[in-house]
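During the second year of the project, the team shifted from modelling isolated chains to modelling whole assemblies. The rationale, set out in the original proposal, was that interfaces cannot be judged from single-chain predictions alone. As a representative example for this report, we include one of the complexes processed in the last quarter. Its constituent sequences, exactly as entered into the pipeline, are reproduced here:
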Amino acid sequence: MTPLLARRRHPLATAALLLVALMAVGGLYAAVSGGRAQAAPQSASTTQIDLGRKLYSEGCSSCHGLNAEGGQQPDGTISGPSLIGVGAAAVDFQVGTGRMPLQANGPQAAPNLPSYTPDEISALAAYVASLGPGPSIPDTGTYDPKDADVVLGGQLFRSNCGACHNFAGSGGALTFGKRAPAIVNTTPRHIYEAMITGPANMPIFPDGTLRPADKRAIIAYVETLKNAPNPGGLDLGRVGPVTEGLLFWVVGIGALVVAAVWIGAKAR
Amino acid sequence: MSDNKVLDVTEGAYDWVDDRVPASNFLKRNLNKVFPEHWSFMLGEIALYSFIVLLLTGTFLTLFFKPVMTEIVYHGSYLPLNGVRMSEAFASTLDISFDVRGGLLMRQIHHWAALFFVGAISVHLLRVFFTGAFRKPREMNWLIGVGLLTLGLLEGFAGYSLPDDLLSGTGLRIADGIVLSIPVVGTYAQFLIFGGQFPGDIFISRLYTVHILLVPGIILALITAHLMMVWYQKHTQFPGAGRTNDNVVGYPLFPIYTAKAGGFFFVVFGVCTLLSALVQINPIWMYGPYVPDQLTAGSQPDWYIGWLEGALRMTPNIETDLFGHTISWNILLPALVLPGIIFTLMALYPWIERWATPGDNGPHNLLDRPRNAPTRTAIGVMSLTFYILLWIEGGNDIIASKFDISVNAMTWFMRVACIVLPPIAFITTKRICFGLQRRDRDKLLHGYESGVIKRLPSGEYYEQHQPISYEERALLSARDDKEPYVLPVATDANGVRQKGLAHKRVRAKLSGWFYGDSVPKPTPAEIAEAGHHEEELTAARQADIESTRAKVLAPSPSDET
Amino acid sequence: MSDHEHDDDFSALPHHEPRMSDIDPRAAKRAERQVALLFTGAMLCGIAFIVAFAAVPVEKLVWVPLIGDTQLSNLLLGLFMGLGFFLVGGGAIHWAKKLMPEQEVISERHDTGAPAEARQATFKELERGVNESGVRRRPLILATLVGALALMSVAPLVLIADLGPKPGTKLRYTMWRKGMRILVAETGQPIRPQDLLVGSLVSGVPDGIDAVLEAEGNLNELAKAPVILVRMDPTDIKAQQGTDWDFQGILCFSKICTHVGCPISLYEQQTHHLLCPCHQSTFDLADGGQVIFGPAARELPQLAITVDTDGYLVAQGDFAQPVGPSFWERG
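Output from the structure prediction step:
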């Protein structure tokens, strides 16, 4: 009797067997499926579009249709709009900010950790761009806010963006459960793409009315908001008097009531 | 030796003054004035001390602030606004925040202290209401208090609108819209107030006069009258051992009360200042200057105006046309009619309660424990519930955004809740008061439950009660029970008809509602009877124990063999 | 256990428990040292405040956990001043609680209100004064006195009339005129239809508004004239406030909410709803700007637009109704 056989009735024998079996099957699958973990970066855009098509059919077609023409539930409600003509920028934004693939149903898609690598996102974007002309992903020179006019950016931000996203980019409510999210931590490229594609209910700010230089200025201002000092102390979320009042009642009046009780209490 | 010198100098100074004005008499009478002690009596002091802090920090700010709407181009330290056109008011506020040492601190202390001023008045008002301290002879002080609250709201609104920033400017625009909605004279009023159309070029200057001169002057006068009355009428006190309606039990003004009250002033100032060092408030540089075509999401007034904001948000859009003239009920009702009714009812409350309380002619210097005035307490909680619902609605978009709720659903919920929840709060509070009264009654009759459970040989479980202390007995017994107003007969034995019967019927109904149901205080006879009963029970239990012990210890016939 | 356990009359003060500092002289000395320590701390804070004021420039920032970059001067001045005041207060209170005698004292109240005879005597004095003045016998004097005082108190009130001009028709009209170009707010560029895509939003002002604001020395026109332009698919437009007031699906509405006047630009491009964040009035821009939720009672006024010979968007004239909040004479 071998040592292994002698332990065949050991309490952990079943668990060990299961573990071995799982590893065997998993390893076999990995060997056979040929690892797409290293999706080869794309020199030729046709490989990129092919990869994109493949990724699309696996992860997006169930809602957006097999040919990105849009998808419908049996009862007629739209499960995913048509992506023909939305452009690479929309894909880069939606998938790059983790809004797509949609994680949960609700009034609107929420930002999340991205489900795809940057290379995969580029591939998806290339595929969608190939379906029809639409806004393309801006290059660094277009969105980089370096040397942009922060002061003008502030004025444009307060004129165009603050009404939905709040004076400090902390976000705000829209109707029926929709929201304008906080944008302080959004990357410059994604901000630019949001302005030109108008995701969800955000309006589009085309280059005709908000020139690229103006957009860069706004992005520069948002960057300063991100790192803006709080000269007076804790900023309480930068949403205005509501949190200030809340803190006042809890901490301010609380502290003084505690002090009053202390004053009135009998000393030992 | 130096001690004597100090005393000599003081005595010398004192003599000098007393030769000229009657200081002696005043000091002799008042150095030993007695003030009762309870933490809830210090809430009004927080308001007083906050006001002093406001005066001090406010004076500092007036030395730097420019209440002018003329536009200039900003070239100060705050770079994101460099080169931007803004009013001098806004620019001078930026200068105070970024170019004056301690300027930002003074601004923040001033703003936090304003929140404390109105907040302290509010909690003080609640304390006075729930303990019935507004009753005779203090009705005038109650009126002054309601006046101070109203002026505090106005003063705060004027104050935070002075810097002419985007957030407060939006508030001014809303105030302007409210004025416009007034029937007949609305447009004239708006043009008079703003010197023309909104925003005009003079309103900040006018607001400045109101904020640093007119309203503080009135507030100062009212505070003086308020304190003088507390001084002469002497403070009320909670009932208890040694306390009667005709005395004051506490500590003398000098030195104890001076030390505690003076110390509390510094504590209040200290807390305001520490908050201002650590927590940012009203960062106007981030809001930007006020421009009438810009707005930020989540625009709210300071907390104490929140209830009016909530009322404006939840009122349905009712507007009617009267022969070519528009009446905007959607604005008049929440912004003018609602506060009008609330402040009027608040002001009149002492007389309403007095009318419902027959034979209530004497002075009330002993306070009510809230549970012993169930209807009044329930009215207070009901009103507070209504206020808080309106207040929460005022922040509905911030709450919706942070908690992922639909802002529309929230408004609908609040529309229903502010009608449905207050009566529920009323009934619940009243029931809670009765429960507490019953517990007090039980304590007086049976002592308090000690938590020690004993079991008798017969199998019965009982809980031991401990007698309550003298101090507690004094407190629980001190209840001033009222009987409701009895309606006189319509026509008496001689056939004379009672005058004003309809008026009296209303009075009887109100009085019955106030005092009709209550848990009565145990009478001395009932307490004595309960005592006897307790003695009997104890005796019976003792007898049970004794007899069982006797049985157990008695030699049994089988043992002997 | 209190000495009054079986009293039925509650006139005795509660049992008084002496403090440690009353019994034990060492506890008293300790309390004294504690009070002195608190006051000394306050002194040090006062000195530190002066030093911080002199030494720390107002523009210096410092990084603090949880707060981020903050103004060092504000932080230090506030901490030292706050702590200093707190220590003064704490010291005084600690002194009172531990060391000052805290036996409760009883003081009698005196009825507010003089006894009846005194009141009557005073009232008689008042009566005597009134009689001596003669008003009772000379009602003409009294009547004319009342009239004089009343008029002279009320008359000066008319001075408020010059606080502002009369409204006239100013609230009915804005500066928009036929042919006036719509410019992008803040940048001032004119707008061509092709600059707007379906789903886009832009805030606009009339051409020439800067000159008007400069000339008037105020921002009044900016509280009435601003507009928003949105573009939607023409088939999505259910209704407008006039025939052909749009231009190829581009609609122009007043930016000023008809509730209490906040400027609105929260446009939801998919639902075509415009939300005012002040009180959540919601307007359906595809349906003639009708109110679909919230406290606003009237639709958002639409501005008829077209295109001029150079291809830029222009107004066809002023608004057809007053913009902004309702008022009595609005009709």
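The radius of gyration of chain B is 31 Å. The CA atoms of residues 360 and 526 of chain B lie 26 Å apart.
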